[in-house]
Design a protein that fits this description.
The protein has 84 residues and is mainly α. It is built from 4 helices and 2 strands. Helices cover 57% and strands 5% of the residues. Strands 1-2 form a two-stranded antiparallel sheet. Helix 1 crosses helix 2.
Amino acid sequence: MSKEDSHIGYKTEEIMLEIQNDVEAKYVLTNSWIDALSEYCIQYDVEETQIVQYLSPVLIKNIKQEAKSLNLIKRDNFDIEIPF
């Protein structure tokens, strides 16, 4: 098993799933992916930059969509919705 595949005896996939489950549970209470991730980091006393590598593609997609809808990040050229 390579160094990238495990962290302190846990597989990366296990860590990703644990984080995703915790953040999803917090999302139900906050109705915000960004707030849910922030609360997760506060609860476990970690910086967002420390867990980025463990965020699942689903969480990243949800956080990006929320950030775009709040104009926190630029929309891609192909994200423009056509009204018809």
